[in-house]
Amino acid sequence: MKTPLFIFTLTHFLIANLSNPFQTDDHVQVPTALKKYIPKGFDALEMAKGDLNRDAYADIILVLKKRGEEKTSDVINHPEKRPLLILLGQADKTYKLAARSDNSVYCVDCGGMMGDPFTGITIKNGYFSVEHYGGSGQRWTRIVTFKYLPAEKNWFLFKDGGERFHATAPEEVKTEVKTVKNFGKIPFQKFDIYKEEN
């Protein structure tokens, strides 16, 4: 007879792998055709597939991490940047690098006591979100969403915000979300998650 812990562990493993079919254990399976976009000394942290520019071809976002970043990153003086690459699907089933930002994903030690704050990428119909969760006693989430504008053939900051709550009172949640009305028109490439104001 299987124990409840075994069933929980198996269920968690299956859900994690269904949510990201490219990830196995702690390793992201990157197709050979995309490896040329990964600079020397970097590995793929996350790979997500979806519609980023509202055309007929599936697109990919790659989030990269520097090898050994957990030893060299210093959140205060020198956070190791994690490049985010937007790769657009082409008619011949190849991919083209459309945009890159080194300031859209928090560093490995930016989550405080909770550790690595990066939780994933979500893509849907020309929008994509970079999701984080961190803190210690005081917990926080931050979801940064970008929207594709066909006329400009680029992605722009759409929403930036999240929730804050104390670990001892998770039901007492404070939500703050900024929109274009607050920060204006910011291209994906110029957004900087490390700055308070964009």
Q: Your description of this structure?
A:
With 198 residues, the protein is mainly beta. It has one domain. The protein contains three helices and eleven strands, in the order αββββαβββββββα. The strands form three sheets. The chain has a five-stranded antiparallel beta sheet with strand order 7-8-9-10-11. Strands 3-4-5-6 form a four-stranded antiparallel beta sheet, with no helix packed on it. A hairpin with an 8-residue loop joins β3 and β4. The model is unreliable at 1-25 (pLDDT under 50).
Number of helices: 3
Could you state the order of secondary-structure elements as H and E? Answer: HEEEEHEEEEEEEH
Distance N terminus to C terminus?
55 Å
Helix content: 10-25%
| Gyration radius over CA | 18 Å
Kindly report the average pLDDT value: 88
User: How many strands, what sense, and barrel or not for the largest sheet?
Assistant: 5 strands, antiparallel
How many strands in all?
Answer: 11
Structural class: mainly beta
Q: Uncertain segments of ≥5 residues (pLDDT<50)?
A: 1-25
Question: Per the principal axes of the C-alpha atoms, what is the gross shape?
Answer: globular
Percent of residues in beta strands:
35-45%
Strand order of the largest sheet: 7-8-9-10-11
> How many structural domains?
1
